[in-house]
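can u pls check wat happens w/ adenosine monophosphate
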Amino acid sequence: MLNIVLFGPPGAGKGTQSAKLIDQYHLVHLSTGDIFRANIKGGTELGVLAKSFIDKGQLVPDEVTIGMLSSEVNKSPEARGFIFDGFPRTSAQAEALDTLLKEKGTSISMMLALEVEEEELRKRLLIRGKDSGRADDQDPVVIQKRIDVYNGETMPVKAYYEAQGKYHGIQGIGEIEDIFKALCAEIDKG
Ligand code: AMP
């Protein structure tokens, strides 16, 4: 199986590149942010809970996120592989993902990290907020909180995969197509 963690701060382009990568490699796309938003839209209990954290730019608690992700992985037993987009975001999530995949006789193949500096992220998120209507992309205070959470809680996940020799940084500024080619080149190297 080809199991990719697509990593990067909010606004780095993970969603855009995931859509292209799943087409190219026929993988199942699991975006925890998208799943939370679908639950919010559907008015589920999980959605109500998740919204209370998302609106403040905080992470949804690990036990909730890990439980949800596990059940999503279990829904695709025939998958050729997965793109994990926006997960793991904490060390506990990274460990849980390793355990889950090990139980299935597989593992993370690589982490591809889109590297974009903060000033550019702030700009991109505000533009996306206007287009997508996402409340968490419209408030500069919430945007800054998400960037701070990324730098504090999520950064250790990079070290986690570096220690396993699986980390690959990719320049996330430029043409979408060029960034996509750079991601594919890393994947094709194996
Ligand atoms: P995203 O669409 O990836 O930017 O995620 C939007 C929001 O959903 C985040 O700011 C978090 O509040 C929440 N979220 C998404 N993925 C996770 C995760 N792996 N762990 C905790 N919270 C998450």
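Residues 10, 32-33, 36, 53-54, 57-60, 65, 86-87, 89, 93, 136, 146 surround adenosine monophosphate (CB under 6 Å).
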